[in-house]
Amino acid sequence: MLKIDIILPISLQPLTYLCPPELKDKAIIGMPVSVPLRNKTVYGVICDIDITDSKLTNLKEIISIIGNSPVLTKNHIELINWMSGYYHCEKGLILKSMIPDQILSAKILPAKRKNKLKKITFEKSPILSDYPTGHKQLELFKEIVSNHRYKTILVHCDSFIHQLSIIIELLSDVKNAIILCPEIEQAEYAGAVIEKMLNRRVLIVHSGLSLVKRIRTYNEIIDGKDIIVCGTLSASLVPLKNPSLFIVIDEHSPNYKQERHPRFNARDIMVRRGFMEGIAVILLSVSPSCVSYMNYQVGKYDFCDMTKVTLVQNLVIENMSGVRTTIKKDVFNILDKTIKDSRHALIYINKKGYSILRCRDCESVIECPKCESPLMFFADTTLRCNNCGFTKKAIANCPVCKGVTFDNIGSGIQRIERLINQKMRIIPVRLDSSLTMKEYNTAVKEALINPIVIATRLALNDKAFFGFFDHIIYLNPDIHFTFADYLSNERLYQEVRTLCGMLKDSGKIHIQTRFPRNPIFTTLRKRDYPSFAINEINKRNELSYPPFSKMASLVFYYNGQTFPFEIPEKMDDVSILGPITVYFNRKGYSRSIKIILKSKDRNSLNQAIINMKKSADESKVCIDIEIDP
Ligand SMILES: [Zn+2]
Ligand SMILES: [Zn+2]
Question: 374 alpha carbon to ligand 2 midpoint, in Å?
Fold first, then answer.
């Protein structure tokens, strides 16, 4: 009898079964099957077939082969194999992310309701005609796409709308394609625009789909011809056959990293899949990631700058050295004028809550009892920890000296709201994560008719504000300089570029900083992205950060006072940083620690991870592995 390997959508590697002779003809790689497992019937996919006649008799036989055609192609199986090795993840869990279980068991669905068409407004970016070589570049891209050979092109764009305009041009001759967006809202908007402009079927895929919708969508993808999939990171794994183009919008976005196991990077998956399928991959961004730019520099990707060459200086540095107020006086003048001229200004601040509290008597900062980070005070009189999520009602006395007077240290968005209110006698519209979805949507509508809006990151990519503001004031960019994270400069650059997308063409962004001469601001003002990227890449090379070294972050969850096995300080060619105590929650475990593994060599890193996994398994410690953290 044939031996066949089956991937089941559970946390396991493939299992081997025998194929009874009567099912032999239907046994093809990618076919869904039902098999017995621990006295139950479970559903999976054939991933390998061994044609040598088997003498093994202790294997069970598969029960049935479902349907008439495979749900996955050989390339999809190859992708599962590759991801399993690269991300140290069971193949079963990757299958589960790739296809809903219900499709494997051919679940029957209720009859379909008619879809309502969404109303959208979309104005194509004028930049395509403004930019002198725009059309030439597009023709070149189209030629590359129609060649059906693998190539990744990194494209530097001006805005989300600019990216969408390029996509519409590129899709005109393409049958099957996947387009990734960092956020659900953007995916829905992009999908609606493509449907309207090209009159094509677009399937939206994201984690918020209802089960029935998800099954229906995936069924259509598996059968599909002429299908465009538009979605967030989970769309990078959809089992689309014969794709001819993959596109990633805002390829630099941290949202492409899956937060839970399997922790993959959707942009990297698209590039890998493009290579496996032998097709073009287009990475678009208003501020490309330095890793992608470096891939261009070493010849792995092509690069194309499609930003409009402009002499307009729309970035103003407000030097804050020696200034003691939270908002500079010049900025108040700008806000005053904005109100007078009935224009629109956004005050952007990357901090939730009101402020940190410090005891006036003993000068101690109120800290989180769990992890010792400073607690943030909120206007609803709670104290919250941004590090571990601890929350409690505000206190009346200092826990150290019982003092009763506190000073506010630093400013969150709620304190800025109050300051604006006091100084200017107006109530600005506030957009932050303290609002419910409904409140947020109402606030966005108000923001469009009010002169002053204050917002955190939450509003950064809201399509309501693309090209909307006359002034944007970025209050606290300097917090990026206090992070020990090697990506923080890159994040700041991307944040400012994204904010620029919310400006009118004639608009200005004002950056309040104590480090006006930091090269990051110089390159931003000159719109000189290559200089910025090369500078960052050189710094990472000196300090041997990724991509010059390979990294993995390992979190161990355990119970008891002491960690059950010893973590070495070094393993062959792999340095180990930590362990440090972290405060992540996981059911059944009370403690967690984290280590970082770093190596020049991917194989040594993989071996070290395998060894750590073995030690953890032996000591009943749960391990969470993140590659390229
Ligand atoms: Zn005190
Ligand atoms: Zn805490």
Answer: 8
